[in-house]
Amino acid sequence: MGGGGPDETRERTPWWVTALLVIGLIALLGGLVVGGVAWWFHANKNRLLAEGKKAGDEGKAFAVEHDQRACVDEGVARCSACKGPACEAMASVFTSVCLETAELSSPDVCDGVPAHGEILKTVGWAAAECERRGRANDQSCQRFFHGFTSTCENASLRARRNE
Predict the structure, then answer these.
(1) Is 132 exposed, middle or buried (0-12, 13-18, 19+ CB in 10 A)?
(2) pLDDT of residue 161
(3) Could you tell me where the DSSP H helices lie in 15-138?
(4) Domain boundaries, the chain
(5) Do the Cβ atoms of 105 and 67 come closer than 8 Å?
(6) Distance of alpha carbon 22 from alpha carbon 17, whole angstroms
(7) Cα 11 to Cα 13: distance, rounded to the nearest angstrom
């Protein structure tokens, strides 16, 4: 009897085996998340398409009697009332369609908006814009304005803005 406990006779697992197991587990979990998201979109695609069409139709109808600035204000209000990303996306669809079809243009609606892709400028601008609108710390407002940069990059909106 060597007096040693059971740990003395057991070999340690090499570090690389543990690392491979951890990497494999992370990959498995990542695959499950991606698969779950893909399944959810597939299961809800018809509803999402219908909601997107409805939001676009509402944007067109709103644009008939409102200017582009009112389109943005209404989009922010809709987005701030949202409880999830699908609703926020519909608020963005509403705003994009409304801006594109508004009969009454607001030439300065995109003034000061950073170019799409200027991430740091966009973060600061979105936070300041939400604060200016009385929605400081409203994450849905900030996400809305992050997406607004691509709307302002749209060539036809820029062309209308420069008229």
Answers:
(1) exposed
(2) 47
(3) 15-65, 68-80, 85-101, 119-132
(4) 43-161
(5) yes
(6) 9
(7) 6
Would you state the structure tokens that stand for residue 72, as one six-digit string? 């943005």
Q: How far is CA 7 from CA 3, 4, 11, 14, 15, in A?
A: 11, 8, 8, 15, 17
The tokens describing 7, both together, are 């740990």
Cβ count within 10 A of residue 73: 14
Residues in the chain: 163
Q: What per-residue confidence (pLDDT) applies to 83?
A: 87
Dist CA 143 CA 84 (whole Å): 11
Beta bridge partners of 67: 104
Q: How far apart are CA 148 and CA 145, in angstroms?
A: 5
CA distance 161 to 121: 21
Interior CA angle at 78 toward 55 and 74, to 5°?
Answer: 85
118-159 residue pLDDT tens: 999 999 999 999 999 998 888 899 999 988 888 888 744 545
Residue of 50, 139, 157 lying closest to 96 (CA atoms) = 157
